[in-house]
Amino acid sequence: MDLNYLLSRHQISLMRANQSACSSSRRSHQGLAAGYAARIRAVQAGSTGSGRVIGGPGAAFV
Predict the structure, then answer these.
(1) Which domain holds residue 35?
(2) Could you tell me if residue 59 is inside a domain?
(3) In terms of Cα–Cα distance, which of 15, 39, 36 is closest to 26?
(4) Interval 38-49: pLDDT, tens
(5) How many domains is the chain partitioned into structurally?
(6) Dihedral (CA of 27, 32, 38, 41) sign
(7) Long-range contacts of 36-39 (CB under 8 A, 24+ apart)
């Protein structure tokens, strides 16, 4: 997954969490942001989450 996409979705999730009127919506958006943050860390570490290294042999680019 593209790093810029993940960064954008993370930021949007944080903004929506801050703007949420109810606690359940806020927690939901915070959970999404946490998930995107984990994916961002994986991409930055060179892992796609499938055991493949980005740019390595057989790597899949999405």
Answers:
(1) 3-45
(2) no
(3) 15
(4) 999 999 998 655
(5) 1
(6) negative
(7) 36/6, 36/9, 36/10, 37/10, 39/1, 39/6
